């Protein structure tokens, strides 16, 4: 397997990745482009203001009190998006949540916090638990994804709401895929398109492709049916990404939201990564991420360490140590989700068998699966030395960042709130 | 009056749709081109062009498979090109569902092949593709072999030569403008359009809908773009409306 000379991504990283002649991946190049001289953030903020002004004008003309929609989960990015639009730009956003169903107590605490602190209106859609179970089971066995419903839901429901309430603008936070592995460049000012929704978020499946499979009915998939082209055009709704206009720095935004609006990271050691402030809203994320490891040989510690490396807060060596510690670990919540889906743990593993990437997994002599490669096995050579990122003083595992990243040698202080201090193994749908 | 066409181009490298920036492939946009085609179909595009820009010829079979899958979804004329250096492979692409073949290097290295294909399938089936580049000498010449080799031939001479060898249409691209977001290389494009009497497709550098208008006003019969159409919802439809509003005769939706 080939690994990026700068971060830790392998060549089979998802959704798509490409290496250039220096052995650096498209995600690193995207990240690097933020600091280039030709990116004028002042000019981009002015572009954003213009888009927001246009949305306000359209809302007035339509007699609408909401001028935009912000899809939120309650996480750090949701807090920042709402804070920025409401506090800084004086918008009146309608918050829209597609309930993950697999909510963690910390996630529910933060969503509730967001609604209280922002004072915004919220629409929350909760798909029926039985439908979620059917969809999750089917997607687990076909593509190894038990979180399809909320990825599909959060990319669809805001557009259903936009059409229903005649709201012309949806404001997403970062272009998540570009931040991870590339896909587009910062110069493209890419907007939301239904094909990234289908191809990446929904793994190539539109709701109608699923009817009749695994007992899935039309009723089960109703929340994931995208409005028609005609409806979208009539509402004139577009979805923009703030990360095209704002110099996106997830860690700074998280810190800001902890200070301003009491967003709360968790304080216990997580099963799959050292990051304590991202993707903490539901447990299934851990199993979801573990599936990524079972299929492609890397997990969230690779994602999180790669991001820290790009920012110069971790060295390659430090990042690799995190990958070695976390990426292979089976999450404690696996039992919870097997029980919910009605599969035994052995069955769960056998369902993944046919989805293992043959470039990274093979059967060993005992019939078990063994990775053929890992970034941890690669010595740091001249190519990697050349691509080292200049290190900054703000170290990932410094005392100042103790509450944001789990340092094995110096774990975070307990917050006193059991919801944040103890890992829960059960989820709460509402 | 003959209507002007809007063409979406899919740049495929090892089966994945990539962004091309001055002939370097910077990002993978789609792991499966079919998803893009489903949208373009619905969004009023007039034609599709698929180009295989993989660095080696072992990609030929995989590309033919991609053509086959896309042809099954595509309701507009489909052209395919890249690594066509023998008649059997040309036939493979046509049987896979391509309506036209896009040939580039073959016009330099396999002139007999181009003539044979043009005679066999008709000149309407052969699109002569040209990649122009501004050289350090200050001259603009035509490059072949995925932008690697300089033929040292001027664009208008090359265009004339492609038509003589049997091209029924030309596909104009500029390596300096490709993915550079500054519009088509208008002076070279205009010179080519004035030189030949076959339709010319403008390509390379589109970043605004006005760039499409500029290319058509420079004499092109069709305006093509790749990267830009992947960035926004209903992109090709919006582009088509912009063309119509600019007074360009286009096929209505």
UniProtKB/TrEMBL annotation, chain B:
Q: Name one Pfam family in it.
A: His_biosynth
Q: Could you tell me which pathway this protein works in? A: Amino-acid biosynthesis
Please give the biological process terms from Gene Ontology that the record holds: L-histidine biosynthetic process
Single GO term (MF): imidazoleglycerol-phosphate synthase activity
EC nos: 4.1.3.-
The UniProt entry, under InterPro entries, shows: Aldolase_TIM, His_biosynth, IGPS_HisA/HisF, RibuloseP-bd_barrel
UniProt-listed Gene3D superfamilies: Aldolase class I
The UniProt keywords, alphabetically, are: Amino-acid biosynthesis, Histidine biosynthesis, Lyase
**Top EC category:** lyase
The entry sums up its family as follows: Belongs to the HisA/HisF family.
Q: Give the protein's recorded name.
A: Cyclase
Q: Which organism is it from?
A: Chitinivorax tropicus
């Amino acid at each position: 397997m080939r690994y990026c000379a700068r971060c830790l991504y392998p060549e089979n990283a998802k959704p798509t990745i490409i290496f250039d002649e220096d052995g650096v991946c498209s995600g690193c190049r995207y990240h690097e482009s933020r600091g280039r001289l030709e990116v004028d953030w002042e000019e981009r903020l002015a572009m954003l203001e213009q888009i927001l002004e246009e949305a306000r004008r359209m809302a007035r003309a339509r007699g609408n009190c909401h001028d935009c929609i912000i899809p939120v989960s309650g996480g750090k990015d949701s807090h920042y998006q709402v804070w920025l639009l409401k506090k800084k730009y004086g918008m009146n956003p309608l918050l829209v949540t597609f309930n993950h169903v697999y909510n963690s107590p910390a996630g529910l605490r933060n969503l509730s916090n967001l609604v209280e602190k922002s004072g915004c209106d919220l629409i929350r859609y909760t798909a029926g638990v039985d439908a979620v179970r059917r969809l999750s089971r089917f997607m687990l066995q076909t593509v190894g994804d038990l979180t399809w419903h909320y990825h599909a839901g959060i990319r669809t429901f805001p557009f259903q709401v936009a059409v229903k309430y005649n709201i012309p603008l949806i404001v997403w936070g970062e272009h998540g895929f570009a931040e991870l592995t590339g896909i587009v460049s910062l110069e493209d000012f890419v907007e939301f398109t239904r094909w990234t929704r289908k191809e990446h978020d929904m793994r190539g499946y539109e709701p109608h492709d699923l009817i009749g499979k695994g007992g899935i009915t039309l009723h089960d998939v109703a929340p994931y049916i995208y409005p028609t082209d005609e409806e979208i055009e009539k509402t004139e709704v577009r979805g923009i990404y703030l990360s095209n206009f704002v110099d996106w720095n997830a860690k700074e935004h998280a810190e800001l939201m902890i200070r301003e609006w009491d967003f709360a990271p968790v304080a216990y050691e997580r099963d799959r990564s050292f990051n304590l402030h991202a993707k903490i809203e539901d447990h299934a994320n851990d199993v979801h991420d573990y599936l990524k490891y079972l299929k492609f040989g890397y997990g969230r510690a690779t994602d999180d360490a790669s991001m820290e490396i790009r920012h110069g807060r971790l060295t390659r060596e430090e990042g690799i140590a995190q990958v070695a510690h976390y990426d292979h670990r089976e999450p404690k919540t696996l039992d919870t989700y097997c029980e919910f889906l009605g599969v035994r743990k052995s069955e769960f593993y056998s369902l993944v068998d046919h989805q293992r990437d043959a470039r990274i997994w093979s059967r060993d002599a005992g019939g078990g699966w063994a990775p053929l490669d890992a970034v941890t096995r690669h010595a740091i050579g001249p190519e990697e030395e050349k691509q080292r990122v200049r290190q900054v003083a703000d170290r990932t595992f410094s005392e100042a960042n103790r509450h944001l990243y789990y340092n094995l040698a110096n774990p975070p202080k307990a917050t006193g709130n059991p919801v944040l201090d103890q890992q829960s193994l059960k989820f709460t749908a509402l | 009056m003959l209507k002007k066409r809007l063409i979406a181009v899919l740049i495929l490298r090892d089966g994945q749709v990539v962004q091309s920036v001055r002939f370097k492939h910077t990002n993978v946009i789609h792991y499966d081109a079919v998803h893009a085609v489903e949208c373009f179909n619905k969004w009023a595009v007039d034609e599709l062009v698929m180009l295989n820009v993989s660095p080696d010829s072992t990609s030929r079979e995989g590309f033919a498979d991609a053509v086959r899958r896309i042809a099954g979804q595509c309701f507009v004329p489909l052209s395919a090109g890249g690594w066509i250096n023998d008649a059997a492979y040309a036939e493979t692409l046509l049987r896979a569902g391509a309506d036209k073949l896009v040939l580039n290097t073959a016009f330099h290295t396999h002139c007999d092949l181009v003539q044979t294909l043009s005679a066999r399938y008709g000149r309407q089936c052969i699109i002569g593709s040209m990649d122009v580049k501004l050289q350090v000498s200050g001259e603009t010449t035509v490059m072949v072999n995925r932008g690697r080799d300089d033929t040292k031939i001027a664009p208008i001479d090359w265009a004339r030569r492609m038509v003589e060898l049997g091209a029924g249409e030309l596909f104009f691209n500029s390596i300096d403008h490709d993915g550079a977001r500054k519009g088509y290389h208008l002076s070279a494009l205009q010179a080519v359009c004035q030189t030949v009497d076959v339709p010319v497709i403008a390509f390379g550098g589109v970043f605004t809908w006005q760039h499409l208008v500029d290319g058509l006003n420079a004499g092109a019969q069709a305006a093509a773009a790749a990267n830009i159409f992947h960035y926004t919802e209903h992109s090709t439809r919006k582009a088509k409306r912009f063309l119509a509003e600019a007074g360009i005769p286009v096929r209505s939706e």
